[in-house]
């Protein structure tokens, strides 16, 4: 497979959070399909500050096996699927890797599974990925929503795997697309997923990430606006148990005028060494006048010994915008909420469960699939039962 490389300029951002160390300007990071263009993973790199290479289970190696698990798809009439190579125009149509595990998966998956959503109709797609292999493997998926399409695509990851995954999301002009990625692996799985979206004129993307199962799960999601009028809503929900590491990295690239983005991620943590990381990067370039953006992260720590890192980053290169802001907070139960519920005859344990349900339900309700909503709600109930909260 031929390699494509985009050489970076050099520079530091004018705005950074966490540890007081400036980060590299977001759009200047190297992008390449060749894993050799990326150095070994090191905590000196901002994107690997929290996650060491040993937790990746070999997904940073030069080569990986191709994914051999099951990939089952159900879809509406008119949706087409095919395995395609790099000669297909959709291959790389949403972007290329900008870190080592993503490049390793790109080079190791010789073909991509392309799901084409037809124009001018409403469609539903569900892709169930399951595995029972402990061998580090690679998978490449492409979702291509044609102009004026309206669709919901659900990616459902289950079983046991050590998986490096690239997901490309192409949203055509005037299309409306919802993509839901569920990580519900068993306790020993490792999953590194890079999900890149590119939006056309007046298009809308709702991207939802739900991470519940797995020893180490890292989802790096990005949205790039290519034409005016784009709108993205990036939502996420995660629940970490003892010893579990869940990381979400977001990037919104406002490169053109008059686009809107909203980012809302919520997480709950319980148990010793439960660890979550959320990093949200928003870039407003000089040409992106009229931008309207806001990002929010909230974490609820249910027990001692849990840790949540939350790092919002906002880079603004023009003052001619509608609005830009961010907020993050991590804390324990609101004593006033608990008192209010207990004063109405609800036990403390049930009051705590009601608070957690309400906290996470905001994200679950954004999924337009009743069966999936019920399943996720039951998963949260099971987590709470396990902890006795």
UniProtKB/TrEMBL annotation:
Residues 135-359 form the SUF system FeS cluster assembly SufBD core domain. InterPro entries: Fe-S_cluster_assembly_SufBD (IPR055346), SUF_FeS_clus_asmbl_SufBD_core (IPR000825), SUF_FeS_clus_asmbl_SufBD_sf (IPR037284), SUF_FeS_clus_asmbl_SufD (IPR011542). Residues 1-22 are annotated as: Disordered. Signal peptide: none annotated. One of its GO terms (biological process) is iron-sulfur cluster assembly. Belongs to the iron-sulfur cluster assembly SufBD family. This is FeS assembly protein SufD. It comes from Rhodoluna lacicola.
């Amino acid at each position: 497979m031929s390699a494509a490389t985009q050489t970076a300029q050099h520079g530091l951002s004018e705005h950074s959070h966490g540890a007081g160390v400036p980060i590299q300007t977001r759009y200047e990071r190297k992008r390449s399909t060749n894993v050799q263009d990326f150095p070994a993973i090191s905590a000196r790199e901002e994107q690997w500050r929290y996650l060491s290479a040993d937790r990746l289970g070999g997904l940073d190696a030069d080569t990986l096996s191709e994914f051999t698990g099951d990939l089952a798809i159900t879809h509406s009439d008119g949706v087409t699927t095919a395995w395609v190579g790099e000669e297909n125009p959709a291959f790389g149509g949403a972007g290329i890797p900008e870190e080592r595990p993503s490049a390793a998966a790109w080079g190791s998956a010789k073909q991509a599974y392309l799901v084409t959503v037809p124009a001018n109709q409403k469609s539903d797609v569900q892709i169930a990925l399951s595995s029972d292999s402990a061998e580090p493997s690679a998978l490449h998926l492409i979702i291509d929503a044609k102009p004026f399409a309206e669709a919901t695509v659900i990616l459902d990851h289950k079983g046991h795997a050590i998986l490096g995954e690239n997901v490309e999301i192409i949203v055509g002009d005037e299309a409306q697309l919802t993509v839901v990625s569920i990580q519900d692996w068993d306790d020993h799985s490792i999953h590194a997923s890079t999900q890149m979206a590119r939006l056309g004129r007046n298009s809308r993307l709702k991207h939802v990430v739900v991470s519940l199962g797995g020893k180490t799960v890292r989802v790096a999601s990005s949205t790039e606006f290519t034409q005016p009028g784009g709108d993205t809503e990036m939502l996420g929900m995660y629940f970490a148990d003892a010893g579990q590491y869940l990381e979400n990295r977001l990037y919104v690239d406002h490169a053109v005028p008059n686009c809107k983005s909203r980012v809302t991620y919520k997480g709950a943590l319980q148990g010793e060494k439960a660890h979550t990381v959320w990093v949200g990067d928003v870039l407003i370039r000089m040409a992106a006048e009229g931008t309207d953006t806001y990002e929010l992260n909230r974490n609820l720590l249910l027990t001692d010994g849990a840790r949540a890192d939350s790092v919002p980053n906002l880079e603004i290169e023009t003052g001619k915008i509608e609005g830009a802001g961010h907020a993050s907070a991590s804390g324990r139960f609101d004593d006033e909420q608990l008192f209010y519920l207990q004063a109405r005859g609800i036990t403390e344990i049930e009051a705590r469960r009601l608070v957690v349900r309400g906290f996470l339900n905001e994200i679950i309700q954004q999924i337009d699939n009743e069966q999936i909503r019920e399943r996720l709600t039951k998963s949260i109930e099971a987590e709470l039962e396990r902890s006795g909260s």
